[in-house]
Specification:
Helix content is 42%, strand content 13%. The chain is an alpha/beta fold. Helix 1 (17-26) runs parallel beside helix 3 and helix 5 (102-117) packs across helix 7. The structure holds pyridoxal-5'-phosphate.
């Protein structure tokens, strides 16, 4: 807004929470959103479910791009800024893929500050969060570092390799003027829970998401918080010594719309699944509870 931009460009996968937020928030600010979607090449493969529905409901201009590596996708999104401003003859602002910028880091330093006001240091030993491009977890890790590194900060990667994330984060630290520390010194990245790749879900994660909702009432999505929580639980079982203590705060970062893209159909109707406990009750004089499935 300060730069007088009339268009905003960003990019991510079909279920990116970041792209959905950008798409929707542009409209009340009087800006047109442009979203580059990675890994979908044909219009008919895009669909209109979950976050993709919301990109479309915001009237975003969508550009379909092939699956490529992180660096080339970031370059592609940066290029879009020039194409948009040339075509429309208006200023365009580019939010890098996933919103991993110095500003994002500040947002999550503010979150840490809110947590401190809620007694974070007295109540928890560790924080766990999901990491895609890194702004969220780096903000928390920086804030923890600047307040004496009292907690362990862990991030479960759901997209990139650990090395790629740390490299990106070290650039952000430089941008912020923090050169006393490297990201790997202040943040523990947990690998092994991406599954096939970003934006896909194994049956294991879909069943895990169901297990959590049916036992706690807490909804997770299959691509972000589902994988993140599965990573946290997996490490608590297999590698508990990587945590500082036993009081673990998992920060739920949203992403709920990804639960509504139809992917859950793959497990929801399985025989004996908790999600498939359905009895047709046609005769009210017969107890439906006694009718076998
Ligand atoms: C729901 C949700 N959680 C976590 C993340 C990860 O955030 P970051 O890219 O800052 O690592 C995202 C990114 O889009 C997200 O949509």
């Amino acid at each position: 807004m300060e730069e007088g931009a009339k268009h905003v460009v960003t990019g991510g996968g079909p279920q990116s929470g970041h792209c959905r937020s950008v798409s929707l928030i542009c409209r009340p600010l009087g800006m047109k959103p442009h979203v580059v979607i990675e890994g979908v090449e044909k219009r008919e493969d895009l669909g209109s479910m979950g976050n993709t529905l919301l990109y479309r409901m915001a009237g975003s201009k969508l550009y379909l791009a092939p699956q490529e590596n992180y660096e080339s996708f970031k370059r592609r999104v940066r290029k879009m800024k020039q194409y948009v401003s040339d075509t429309y003859g208006e200023k365009c602002y580019c939010i890098p893929v996933g919103g991993a910028t110095g500003k994002a880091v500040f947002a999550f330093i503010s979150l840490f500050d809110e947590l401190l006001q809620q007694g974070l240091h007295d109540r928890f030993d560790d924080i766990v969060v999901t990491v895609a491009t890194g702004g969220t977890s780096l903000g928390l890790a920086v804030a923890n570092y600047l307040t004496g590194s009292k907690l362990g900060v862990h991030a479960v990667t759901i997209a990139l390799r650990k090395e790629e994330i740390y490299e990106n984060m070290d650039k952000l630290l430089k941008e912020l003027g923090i050169d006393s520390v490297k990201s790997a010194d202040i943040l523990d990245i947990i690998e092994g829970y991406v599954g096939e790749r970003y934006g896909t879900a194994t049956e294991e994660v879909l069943s895990f998401v169901t297990e959590v909702s049916s036992s706690t009432g807490i909804l997770l999505d299959p691509y972000y918080t589902g994988k993140g929580t599965m990573g946290m639980v997996g490490e608590l079982v297999n590698n508990p010594s990587r945590f500082k203590g036993k009081r673990i705060l998992f920060i739920h970062t949203g992403g709920i719309f990804g639960l509504f893209n139809g992917e859950m159909d793959r497990v929801i109707n399985k025989e004996k699944a908790v999600t498939n406990d359905i009895t047709p009750w046609l005769d009210e004089n017969v107890s439906p509870v006694s009718i076998e499935q």
